Amino acid sequence: MNTYYTIDFSLPSRSVVALGCFDGVHVAHARVIAEAKKKADELSCKCVVWTFDTPPKNFFLPTPVPLLTDAEQKKDAIRALGADILVSVPFDKRTSEISPESFFDEIIIKRLNACHIVCGFDYAFGKSGKGNVEMLQSLCSAGGIGLSVIPEVLQNGVTVSSSAIREFLLNGMPEKAASLLGRPYALRSNVINGQHLARRLGFPTVNQQIPSGMLIPQYGVYVSEILTDRSAKKLYGITNVGIRPTVGGNTPYVETHIFDFSGDLYGTEIQVGFLAFLRPERKFGSTDDLSTQVKHDIEAAKKFIKTI
Fold this sequence. Notes:
Blueprint: E1 2-4, E2 15-19, H1 27-43, E3 46-52, H2 71-80, E4 85-89, H3 93-96, H4 100-109, E5 114-120, H5 133-143, E6 146-150, E7 154-155, E8 158-159, H6 162-170, H7 174-181, E9 186-192, H8 197-200, E10 206-209, E11 220-227, E12 235-242, E13 253-258, E14 269-280, H9 287-305
Parallel strand pairs: 1-4, 2-3, 2-5, 3-4, 5-6
Antiparallel strand pairs: 7-8, 9-10, 9-14, 10-13, 11-12, 11-14, 12-13
Helix pairs in contact: 6-7
């Protein structure tokens, strides 16, 4: 998959373009991209995914909406869906001022060379989000461009959306979030040195800083899956997300005890996926009390893993 990070280019061959923000690349996003891929194959065109590097509303908000995928996770998910080309451009002052009509004429037609477009039912585009699906239908009709609109996608009675996924994660419901994402929510970053307290308690852990801009799930202990290039198979463990109040912490970290693994991961990048919520983070009266609780957490996690 080829990737462009600018609008200053033009594609030489015709394309089918999937339009969207695609934060999280959830199951509804996947339907948009899958339909674009299908149509591209039918028309012998390239499948192009157009997106921004961050949700457009973050450009205007004093506190940005947290992301569900980092840039590489998003790219990997889109590649896995079969896209030939990814165009991920910065949402900045320049792009924020492009009118809906100019976006269609200058980008979709002239730069992306689109012969067909696929988008979701609630897609908005152009300055202030003034362009909607109805306008896009009109522009496509006038320009002789095909358009497929993917309707609302429901999962267990819930509309699949990035905002719904965020709410589930912020309220300690990773399984419900995963049903909308199509996979567990995951954080990926390098392993850093910690205080080694967990090792002294008999539960060695790997520590990670939370990547900038990413959503922080509800503080607490989770059953987790771990991906690392130091292991050929998926690993499992328990992960604490929070400030570790028992030892006087005040900065949120991700701390994971990996089952049946003894390798050195310092300085390497790992991805931790959140499978199930075990309990909220809390302050214990002593490290002995903490140790006893961790043993219970491990038992509960291993019981859950047997059901996977």
